[in-house]
């Protein structure tokens, strides 16, 4: 089993700003695992917020290379062994897990969806994200996003009311709001109760990640459902959130891969929480991997690759926000350029 990896700069169509960060490009690391005649691809999208960067990703991959020589058949066993040797670093682990899944599914001649026994029995629509910007740029972005029936709007600014009014001057389509920890609890109650009158479907992460009791306080005073994002990474985080939130945002790069994302979706159901499948800024490789498990989720937010100017992979495609998976084995995403592995 031969693992190689390459880091690439992915440029965004617009500077992407949210309440707690801003960026023009991201640096993701792509993993290629070859065994016999089969090749599997994976991707790691590090987040400074979760203490990962290109250097830490590359260190984890170097550490994992000798361990992968002992890979037998169980991806979960392999990932457990890597998890024991290397704490945290869930984006790096996602890169490895996706490449192993791609390889194993191709060998078995099934897609990732089939590997997990997931039925493709309903149409799925992703939201499209509108980042924080000045009001004219926001309006231009909303016009450019006319094909997407649901927008996810980033708030947590001093201009939140103006942003929504600017969007409402153009469209009445359904909005999801992500405050990215940007509000105080009193501010959240006031804004959420107004947003309820603006065809808003849900509110994500109103308060800083660790303010669970304050989020429960907000929940008693508003009607819109509250979703955790920064407050939840893995299954073990879910139970304490159930009193404060109505749903959770699950992302491959936060939790360590497809197995844990599926596990989290099941755990969330046990605690009567709704589920959203989200993403970081990722190429069509990791987005396609996530799209395979999308039927397990109530809300889909897989627009990461749609925000890119130079997506190096092709896989899942979108039409009016509804996505279609490639008819291929494994993840089904292929490089569009010479990756220089
Ligand atoms: Mg979020």
Summarize the helices and strands and which ones pair or pack:
Elements (H helix, E strand, L loop, with lengths): L1 E17 L2 E15 L2 E7 L9 H15 L6 H11 L4 H19 L3 H4 L12 E3 L4 H10 L5 E5 L5 H9 L5 E5 L6 H11 L4 E5 L7 H8 L6 E3 L18 E5 H4 L2 H13 L3 E5 L5 H9 L6 E2 L12 E2 L2 E3 L2 E3 L9 E2 L6
Parallel strand pairs: 4-5, 5-6, 6-7, 7-8, 8-9, 9-10, 10-11
Antiparallel strand pairs: 1-2, 2-3, 12-15, 13-14
This protein binds magnesium ion.
What binds here, in terms of ligands, is: magnesium ion
Question: What's the average pLDDT?
Answer: 96
Distance separating the two termini = 15 Å
Describe the biggest sheet?
Answer: 8 strands, parallel
Strand content: 15-25%
Structural class: alpha/beta
Molecular shape: globular
Alpha-carbon Rg, integer = 19 Å
| Biggest sheet strand line-up | 4-5-6-7-8-9-10-11
Quick structural overview:
The chain has helices at residues 54-68, 75-85, 90-108, 112-115, 135-144, 160-168, 185-195, 212-219, 252-255, 258-270, 284-292, and strands spanning 2-18, 21-35, 38-44, 128-130, 150-154, 174-178, 200-204, 226-228, 247-251, 274-278, 299-300, 313-314, 317-319, 322-324, 334-335.
Explain the overall architecture.
The protein is α/β, with parallel strands linked by helices and 341 residues long. The protein contains 11 helices and 15 strands. The protein has helices at 54-68, 75-85, 90-108, 112-115, 135-144, 160-168, 185-195, 212-219, 252-255, 258-270, 284-292, and strands spanning 2-18, 21-35, 38-44, 128-130, 150-154, 174-178, 200-204, 226-228, 247-251, 274-278, 299-300, 313-314, 317-319, 322-324, 334-335. Helix 2 (75-85) runs antiparallel to helix 3. The radius of gyration is 19 Å and the shape is globular. The structure holds magnesium ion (MG). The site of magnesium ion has 6 residues, from loops.
